[in-house]
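Hi everyone, sorry if this is the wrong subforum. Our group has a chain we'd like a structural model of before ordering constructs, and none of us has done structure prediction before. Sequence below.
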Amino acid sequence: YLKEPAHPPGLPSGAASSSSAGAEAAEQPPKFEKSGLLPIVVFGFLSACTARMITQLFPILAIEYGGLSTGQTSLIYTASLVVLIGAGPFFGWLSDNVSRKLVLMVRGVANTISSACFYFFPTMLGLAVGNVLDALGKAAFRPAWGAMMARIAQLNPRRRARTMSYLSLGEGLGETLGPILGGFLWSVWGIGVMLGVRVALAILGEGVAVIVARSDQAGLETGSSGQSPSPPSPRP
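Answer:
Right subforum, don't worry. Here is the predicted structure as tokens:
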């Protein structure tokens, strides 16, 4: 009886086992996907929550607390829109070529300084500077956040959509709960407490941003090291 060889002719005996082991290792999801998603979800929640706490309430803040007219408030919105459109590509370039961690931390710094401007300088200039800083924080956050989500989801292409949904969960909750939290704090304890809580959440988000940036880099290293080289083709 003819017996089939254990491995194809022309292929070294250890190549088949190494290729199968490499395939099994490639099928396993990266460790980053199991241990590093939670701080990223928390960071997305904090960033969106602190931004939405004041975005929906800014007309009331400008007209009732700052004493501005409707026309002055519209001018502030126009200036913020121009800054938002112009600063987005710049922060995208900064995230790609300089430091993503630096760009991610811009939003927390902008939220903190803008809250101080809103509370201590409730004039047209102070409110305009605070709202422009908020726009800068949004412009810095979007490109860095989107690039990080894409790179993390790419670590496991078979679960890309599921990973993106997990990462978007925190941001969606922050956008929903931020206005509710801001309105509740303002109506019960006043604008000072609302802005103080916003500053505290922004500072907490800065610490989480550092963890997220490290996790992003660790995930990239894990994904790249987990890729095994393809076995050499058999010689004719």
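For your construct planning: Confidence is low (pLDDT under 50) at residues 15-32, 226-236. The two ends are 27 Å apart (CA to CA).
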